[in-house]
Amino acid sequence: MRKLLSLTLLALAGSTAFAGGYRVSIQGQKQLAMGHTGVAVVNSAEVAFFNPAGMAYLDKKFNLSVGGNGLFANTKFQNSQYNWEAETKNVGTPFSVYATYRLNDWFTAGLAVYTPYGSSVEWDQDWQGAHLVNNIDLAAIFVQPSISIRVGEHFSVGGGPIFASGSVNFNRNVAINPLLSVDGSGTDVTLDAKGITAFGYTAGFMFNPTDKLRIGMNYRSEIIMEARDGDANFNDVPDFASTSPTLQNTTFNADLPLPAELTVGMSYQVTDKWMLAFDYNRAMWGVYEALTVDFLNADGSIRNTSNNPRNYKNASTYRVGTQYKANDKFTFRAGWYFDESPVQDGYFAPETPRNDSMGYTGGLTYQVNSKLGIDFSFLYLHFDETDNSYNYYQENGNTLPFGGTYKSSVFSPGIGITYGF
Amino acid sequence: MKNNFIYLAILAAGFASCEPEFENEVNAEYTSGDADFTSYVAIGNSLTAGYMDGTVSRVGQTYSFPNLLAQQFALVGGGEFTQPSYAEDVNNLGGLMLGGIPIADRRRVLDATQVNPNGSIGAVEIIAGTSTIEVSNLQATAYNNMGVPGAKSFHLVAPGYGNIAGVALGQSNPYFVRHATSPTATVLGDAMTKNPTFFTNWIGANDVLSYATNGGAQSDGVTAAADHNSTGNMNPATYGGNDITNSGVFASVYSTIINTLISGGAKGVVATVPSVTSIPYFTTVPFAPLSPTALGGATNINALNAQLYGPLDGIFSAYGEPNRVNLLSATSANPILIYDADAIDRSAEITAALTGTLGAPTAAAFGAVFGKARQTTAADLVVLPASSVIGTPNTSSPSTLININGVSYPMANKWVLTANEKLKVANATASYNAAIVSIADANDLAVADMNAILGQLVSGLRIETGQVYTANYFSGSATEGTVLFSLDGVHPNARGYAVIANEVLKVINRYYNANLPLHNPSYFPGINIVGSN
User: Fold this and answer.
1) Are B386 and B477 part of one and the same domain?
2) Cα–Cα distance for residue pair B4/A378, rounded to 1 Å
3) How many contacts (CB atoms, under 8 Å) link A and B?
C-alpha cells in the first residue's frame, strides 16, 4: 500500500493558516515584506507585535500602522492508487492594527490587534477524506495592550497581556462506511463554538549595543482556547440510526492550544539606506497532542469522546529580510523564510495540510508625506508536493489510514498605511 | 506611483493564478498495458450480474464487479459498459414478476425495529413492497454485462435459455429472458455480438452451488440430488436443477466458451470457482445449535432421552453405529437430528424394536421417520435458512409427539450439507478449477484465483488499506465494517464486489502489464439497514 497523504490549505478572514499548523504569520505589511522578521527591527508600530520592547525606540511620539491581506490558499490532493482527486481553495483576510504613544523618554504604551491563528479549509462535502474533515473555519483575534520601558541608552524591555477571542466551526462525516448516510450524503457532525476567550501574555527585550546593531528576543505565551458547551449538531442521520445515543444533537467541550512562540533575532544597519534582519522562531507545537472532543449529556457529564491524535512537534522558522530606503519617497523590502511544519509523518490530516514551506516576500512603502505612508507587501509560500497520510483514524476497531499526495500554494498581497507624528 | 499599482496588480494576478500543480497528475501512469478495453464483456452468473441480498436490484447492479472494473477501464480507453436495464426497479426492491405474479424474492434488508432472539437489533427480512421488475418486458438487447444469475456452465451455450415460454416450466432463466436477443439466443452468442476485445469469465459456481445450498437435495427438499461425476451422465439436458455437473461436461463447455470468446482476438481474465462451503450460508449456523435452554431445560431433555434418543441410540448402537445418535446433554449445546440420505436405513430395525412398546402402526411410523436419521457432527454444514426452521413444529410429522424440527423430528435433506455431500462438492470444485486453469494456460489468459482469494476470508483477508475482512455473516454493528457478504449469505455485498474487482484489477495489472487504480472497499456499503419495514 502506498502512503497516503494529505493536504492543503487555509485561509483567512481573520483566519488563515500556515506557518505550520494553523499559525498565520502575517502581522504587518512592512515586516511581512522583510520575510516577517522584526524582533530586532524598529520600523513602525508593527514592532508592538514583533517585540513590544522596541516600541521605545520609535522616532515619533505617535505611531499607527493598519493593514490587511488577501490570503489565497489552495491545496490539491490526489491518490493514484484509488484515482482520487480533491481540492480546497480558500480566501482569508488577516489584518492588524498597531498604535504606540510615547509618554516620556523611558515609557511608551501601545496597543496591538492582530490575527495570528486561523485555519479555513473547505473540501467538497463527502469527499474521500470527509471522515477527517469536510470543512473547518478557525479564527482568533488577539488584543494586546503593551508597554515598553527603556533601561538606559541601549536596552529596553516590553510586554503586555493578551486577550484572545476565537471561534471554531468544524464539520466532518462520522464514518467512512456509507451505511451512515442518507441518499448518498454521509452522516456528519458540525461543531460550532463562538466567543471563546482566553488570556496570555507577551514579553521581551531589545538591546542595541551599537548604533547599527539591534538584538531582540520575544516570547508569546501559550494560550489554550477552551471551547465549552459548543453546539454539536448531526446531519443526514439515517432513520435506523436516529435513536443512536451518539448521534443526538448535543453540546461539546474541546481544547485547542495556540502554542507558545519564542523569537530571537538581530538587525544590522549596513548603511544609512540598507538594513538586514534575521529572526528565528521556535513554536511549541508539541502541546498539540490530540484534538479531543467531549460530547456532553444534558447534565454536563461526558456522553462520548472523540479522540484524534495530532502529535505535533515543536517547529522552527528561519527568517531573513532586508530593507533599502531608496529616497524620501520609496523604501523597498524583500525577504525569505523557511517554515518547518509541526505535522509529523503519519499525522498529516487534511484539516491542516501543512508540510515544510518556503516563503518569498517583497514590498515597498510610498511615503506620501512625513506623516503618512502607504505600505504594500506580498507573500508567496511554496510547498513541495508531499506524500503523506493520517494513520490514526479508527472505525469499528479497524484503523483506516487516509493519504495521498498533497500540494499547496499560498499567495497573499497586502496593503496598509503607516501614520505618525 | 500609477505604474507601481499596475505592476502590483500584474504581480498579484500572476501569483493568484499560480495554482498548485502536481509533478505527475493522478492518472499520469495509468495504462491499459497489453490489454484493449475498447469492448469489455463480462460472462458469468449471479456473481457477475451484481446479485446481492438475494436478488438483482437497480442499485445493487451498479456495484457488480464488472461495472467496477469498467469504471477503471474507462480511464485507459475503455468503451461504454452496458448492463441489463433495471430502470423499472424504481423503488430498488429487486425481485421478479412474471405476468404480475412474483417469481423471485425482493431484496433482503435488516429491519432495525426487529430484535433477534439473541438481543441484537435487526432481523433479516424481505423488504416490503411489490417488485416492479416484469420479466415479460423483453429488452431483446445484448449487454456488456452478460452475467445471468443462476446460470451454470452449460447454460451459457444452451439455446432457449432465454425463452419466456420456458420460465414457468423451469426450462429457461427469467434473468436471461429479460434481455435475450431472441427466444433461441444463447448467452454466449449474445455476448459475442458485442465483439469483445477483453472479457472476464467467472462461470462454474452454480454447477456445484445449487447442490450445496440445497443440502444435496432435489427441489422437493428430500430426494437426493445427483452428482454426475458419480453417475457419469454426460448429457446436461437431463440434469436436475440441483445436480452436480459432470466435470468432463464442464471442461468441454468451458473450452467452447473460451474458444468462442477469444475467436476475435480478445484477451481476458478467467476466475476460478470459489469453495462454496466457506461462505456464510454454510458457516453461520453451528452443527450443534441446541442449547439446554432452547431444549426446555433438564426436564424436557430427560424426557427426550428416555422416550426418543435413548431408544434410537440403543438400536443404532446394536447395529454397530454407537455414535449415530447420542443422548442429549443438559449442560452443553447439542447437535440436531437430521435425515441423511447416505445413512444406512434402519427403519425396519426401529420398527421391530419399538413394536412391542408402541404397537405396530406407531412403531412403523417411527421407523419411517427415523430410519435414516442421525445427529449432526462437526463435519456437517447446516445451511443458513435452517436457523428459522430448527426448533419449530413440522406439519408433516405423523404425531405431535415427534414434530419438533431437529429435536424430535429429523431435519429434511435440504437443510444440511453432510460430510459426504461436502466432499462431492469439493471434488467437483477442484476438477472444475483444474480445467479452468489448464484451459486458461493453453490460451494465454490471466487467471484470477477467486477460490484462493475467497478462501483467505476464512482466516481473515487483509487488503491494501490494512483492513481485515472475514467470511462472517453480519452479526451486529460492531463488525459491520468487516462484512463482505450480503444478507443472502452466498453473494458478496457491494463492499465484497469491490474487493473482488480489486483482485481482478491486480491480476490484469500483473498479467497484462497494465496500471489501473483500485477501488477502496471501505467506501462501499455493506449491509442495508432500514428504519422500518
Assistant:
1) no
2) 14
3) 119
| B256/B307 same-domain check | no
Backbone angles phi, psi at B361, to 5 degrees: -65, -45
Residues of chain A with C-beta less than 8 angstroms from the C-beta of B530? 239-240
* Interatomic CA distance for residues B69 and B521, integer angstroms: 13
Query: Which class does domain A29-420 fall in?
Result: mainly beta
pLDDT at B263: 96
C-alpha cell at B110: 435488516
Q: Does A177 touch chain B (CB under 8 A)?
A: yes
Residue A151 contacts B where some CB pair is shorter than 8 Å: no
- The band of B340, judged by pLDDT with boundaries at 50, 70 and 90, is very high
Q: Is the pLDDT of residue B408 over 50?
A: yes
> Where in chain A are the domains?
29-420
Residue A121 near residue A350, CB atoms below 8 Å: yes
Query: Are B318 and B408 in the same domain?
Result: yes
Which residues face B505 on adjacent strands? none
Torsion angle of alpha carbons B148, B151, B155, B156, nearest 10°? 40
Phi-psi region of A172 (alpha: psi -120 to 50; beta: other; left: phi over 0): beta
Among B492, B518, B495, which Cα is nearest to B505's? B518
Distance from CA of A63 to the nearest CA of B (A): 24
Pairwise CA distance, residues A281 & B308, whole Å? 87
DSSP A8: -
Residues B498-509 pLDDT 10s: 999 999 999 999
Report chain A's mean pLDDT, rounded to a whole number.
Answer: 91
Per-residue pLDDT for A4 more than 60?
Answer: no
The reply to whether B61 and B100 lie within a common domain is yes
- Scan residues 25-44 of B and list those with Cβ closer than 8 Å to A: 25-30
- In this structure, what CATH number is given to the domain that contains residue B233? 3.40.50.1110
Whether residue B444 sits in one domain with residue B335: no
Any B CB within 8 A of A81 CB: yes
The total domain count for chain B is 2
Q: In the structure grid, which three cell numbers stand for residue A112, read together?
A: 496591538
Structural domain span for residue B320: 297-419
Cβ B144 vs Cβ B179: under 8 Å? no
What ipTM score was computed for the predicted complex, to two decimals?
0.85
Give the side-chain half-sphere CA count within 13 A for B523.
18
pLDDT tens readout for residues B260-294:
999 999 999 999 999 888 888 998 898 999 999 88
Q: Read off the pLDDT band of A353 (50, 70, 90).
A: confident
CA B82 to chain centre: 23
Instruction: Provide φ and ψ at A17, rounded to 5°.
Output: -145, 120
Q: Can you tell me the distance from the alpha carbon of B8 to that of A415, in angstroms, rounded to the nearest whole number?
A: 11
Of B26, B530, B532, the CB nearest to A78: B26
B444 contact A CB<8A: no
* Secondary structure (DSSP) of B21-63: --SS-TTTT-B-TT---SSEEEEESHHHHT-BTTB--HHHHTT
Give the 3-state secondary structure of residue A150.
Answer: strand
